[in-house]
UniProtKB/TrEMBL annotation:
GO MF annotation list: FMN binding; riboflavin reductase (NADPH) activity
Entry keyword Oxidoreductase: yes
Keywords: Oxidoreductase
Pfam families: Flavin_Reduct
Name used for this protein in its record: Flavin reductase
Stretches assigned to the Flavin reductase like domain: 18-165
PANTHER family assigned: FLAVIN REDUCTASE, FMN REDUCTASE (NADH) RUTF
GO biological process, one term: pyrimidine nucleobase catabolic process
Classification via InterPro entries: Flavin_Rdtase-like_dom (IPR002563), NADH-dep_flavin_reductase (IPR050268), Split_barrel_FMN-bd (IPR012349)
């Protein structure tokens, strides 16, 4: 039977497998016309070092995420172990309203104007260069225009549906 004729993998089965895939916890942020948006993600990685480029995957069904495309900028902030409450808030799991989440951290800007977490392990300040839509999500590609290094603290990761440190 050709591979194209095979039934699709069950989404629940796939999510159970991805739960065993460790991801560095990050908050991707932007600002457009005075409105800030931040989302906790684990689906982000390096694409290239020449030019320096990262990618971030976001849920396209959340209309609030459209601001990332409108702004044309974003920052990818890698979280440390002590940022677990920040990660929970920006994931929308703590009950903190979206417009109050930035009060939970110390934020600054670098080159693009996207919010950068002052004590992140590292932050990548990016200019949006491309967006690809894939099923329920969109993948943002960003050219890194500036970086900020925080203290060398243990990193916050997500594995088996829970936070861990590394």
């Amino acid at each position: 039977m050709p591979l194209t004729d095979q039934p699709l993998l069950d989404p629940v089965h796939y999510r159970n497998g991805m739960a065993r895939y460790a991801g560095h916890v990050q908050v991707v942020t932007t600002e457009f016309e005075g409105v800030r948006r931040g989302v906790t993600v684990t689906a982000a990685c390096s694409v290239s070092d020449n030019p320096p480029t990262v990618l971030v995957c976001l849920n396209g069904s959340n209309v609030s995420n459209a601001i990332f495309e409108k702004s044309g900028i974003f920052a990818l902030n890698s979280l440390a172990a002590h940022h677990q409450s920040l990660a929970t808030a920006f994931a929308g799991l703590s009950g903190v309203p979206a417009d109050e989440r930035f009060a939970l951290g110390d934020w600054k800007t670098l080159m693009t104007g996207a919010p950068v977490l002052a004590d992140a392990v590292v932050s990548f300040d990016c200019r949006l260069t491309d967006i690809k839509r894939v099923s329920t999500h969109f993948v943002m590609f960003g050219e890194v225009r500036a970086m900020h290094f925080g203290e060398a603290n243990p990193s916050l990761i997500y594995l088996d549906r829970g936070f861990r440190t590394l």
